[in-house]
Amino acid sequence: MANWEQISGSWKEFKGSVQQRWGELTGDEVDEINGDRERLEGKLEQKYGKAKEDIRRDIDDWLNRL
Predict the structure, then answer these.
(1) Is the whole-model pTM more than 0.90?
(2) For a tag site, which of 10, 42, 48, 53 has the least CB within 10 Å?
(3) Nearest residue to 22 via CA among 45, 44, 3, 54
(4) Which pairs from 4-8 meet CB under 8 Å and 24+ separation?
(5) Blockwise average pLDDT, block size 10, the chain, 66 residues
(6) How many CB atoms lie within 10 A of CB 39?
(7) CA distance between the termini of the chain
(8) Is the distance from CB of 30 to CB of 15 less than 8 angstroms?
């Protein structure tokens, strides 16, 4: 299980996994997020139209699988 500090510090290594998990994010958007969890949450809210609580749960699920 990874924590967000590890993700943030090694964003380039996790970009592919992020795009695989949330395929509607473009490469430019993933670059723009640059390891910032709040930015990721915001982009996912925009793209998927889910509640912030659901987005956070999705991100936590993803983290737990790493």
Answers:
(1) yes
(2) 53
(3) 44
(4) 4/37, 4/63, 7/35, 7/37, 7/63, 7/66, 8/35, 8/36, 8/37
(5) 89 96 97 97 97 97 94
(6) 13
(7) 5
(8) yes
